[in-house]
Amino acid sequence: MGRGKIEIKRIENANSRQVTFSKRRAGLLKKAQELAILCDAEVAVIIFSNTGKLFEFSSAGMKRTLSRYNKCLDSSEDAAEECKAEKQDSKELDVLKDEFAKLQKKQVRLLGKDLTGLSLKELQQLEQQLNEGLLSVKERKEQLLVEQLEQSRVQEQRAILENETLRRQVEELRCLFPQTDRAVPSYLEYYPVEKEKSLVNHGVTSPDLVSNFAFENGDSDITLHLGLPSDVYGKRKAPEREAHSNDSGSQLAL
């Protein structure tokens, strides 16, 4: 006959409990050693009795196994945290995608498109939003225009001040250097002999010079039209001048 099935529960008898603990502890350590040898596994077993006595087994050293266990535990915790963070990021990403889709749809409706699925109340709200936005744009435009006008006024005042400063400087310079009313004499007034020589010796080449010379000598410009020299015309005019003077004298005597 086979052994009957033992109920797994705490053994009340202290002696029986101690005997069972010793037997099963030895069997557990033996199984751990066999597992390590047969499967080339790193096995460690730690057992504390009810009296606090320690029993242990390690196929590769207890410290090494515990260090490896701690590293794996930390890495598993980090992996769990990373997995949790990835899940949280994924949720946040989904929320952001939904918000982006809503905003994009709202923007399209603000442009007057895709309005088929809106009710009357939603259309009224959209119209109110558009009116408020248009009012804000107009106010901002007026503000910019006022600012530009103010800048133009400031620049105009600055230009007026600069012009006034320049005008004062010019007046100060005029006071320091007063202007003379006397005209600057010409070259011919300084050298009248050379003027006559140039006209007599070299001949008349410019009509303006001939006319000026003729008027200075009391001659008429008829010589220019006749093509006669001024000295010849002067000789012809001398008897006429004397006759005119005699006539005038006789009239005075009468």
CATH topology of the domain at 14-111: SRF-like
Structural class: mainly alpha
CATH class of the domain at 14-111: Alpha Beta
Could you tell me the radius of gyration in angstroms?
64 Å
CATH superfamily of the domain at 14-111: Transcription factor, MADS-box
> What is the arithmetic mean of pLDDT?
75
Low-confidence parts: 197-230, 248-254
Largest sheet: 2 strands, antiparallel
Shape: elongated
Strand order of the largest sheet: 1-2
Number of helices: 8
CATH architecture classification name of the domain at 14-111:
3-Layer(aba) Sandwich
Number of strands: 2
Q: What distance separates the N and C termini?
A: 200 Å
Strand coverage percent:
under 5%
Order of helices and strands: HEEHHHHHHH
> What helical percentage do the residues reach?
over 70%
InterPro entries: MADS-box/MEF2_TF (IPR050142), MEF2-like_N (IPR033896), TF_Kbox (IPR002487), TF_MADSbox (IPR002100), TF_MADSbox_sf (IPR036879)
Main location: nucleus
GO molecular function, one term: protein dimerization activity
Coiled coil: 73-176
